[in-house]
UniProtKB/TrEMBL annotation:
Pfam families: IL8
Keyword Transcription regulation carried by entry: no
Protein name, as recorded: Chemokine interleukin-8-like domain-containing protein
Source species, domain of life: Eukaryota
Coiled coil spans: none
Domain Chemokine interleukin-8-like residue range list: 4-63
Xref: Gene3D superfamilies: 2.40.50.40
Keyword Isomerase attached: no
Keywords, alphabetical: Cytokine
Protein species of origin: Xenoophorus captivus
Residue intervals passing through the bilayer: none
InterPro entries: Chemokine_b/g/d (IPR039809), Chemokine_IL8-like_dom (IPR001811), Interleukin_8-like_sf (IPR036048)
């Protein structure tokens, strides 16, 4: 993976596919950086994108949605302390019910 970029001075040309983006950062305008930019870390390169561009906004929406879906999926893998636990005597009665069917 590419190393972190300190500051984008110009916007990159070319397309970036959502599936190629590993992560992104927001660069604000300041004394060290003369432009606002979205820094996209892809599988092969680091790209600087204009946050006002319509295609960049759409890409960011897709990336945020992908992150939300990823968080939702992994939420179900985590242990839930508030779930009721079936006692041993109830487990035995469930086994009896399944056998009788």
């Amino acid at each position: 993976m590419q190393r972190d970029v300190q500051c984008c001075m110009l916007y990159s040309q070319g397309k970036v596919r959502t599936k190629d983006v590993l992560r992104f950062e927001v660069q604000t305008e300041g004394p060290d950086c003369s432009i606002q930019a979205i820094i996209l870390y892809t599988k092969k390169a680091v790209k600087c994108a204009d946050p006002r561009d319509r295609k960049v906004k759409r890409l960011l929406r897709k990336l945020l949605e992908r992150q939300r879906l990823k968080n939702y999926r992994t939420m179900w893998l985590l242990p839930h302390d508030n779930l009721p636990v079936m006692s041993e005597d109830k487990k035995d009665s469930w086994a009896v019910l399944n056998v009788q069917e």
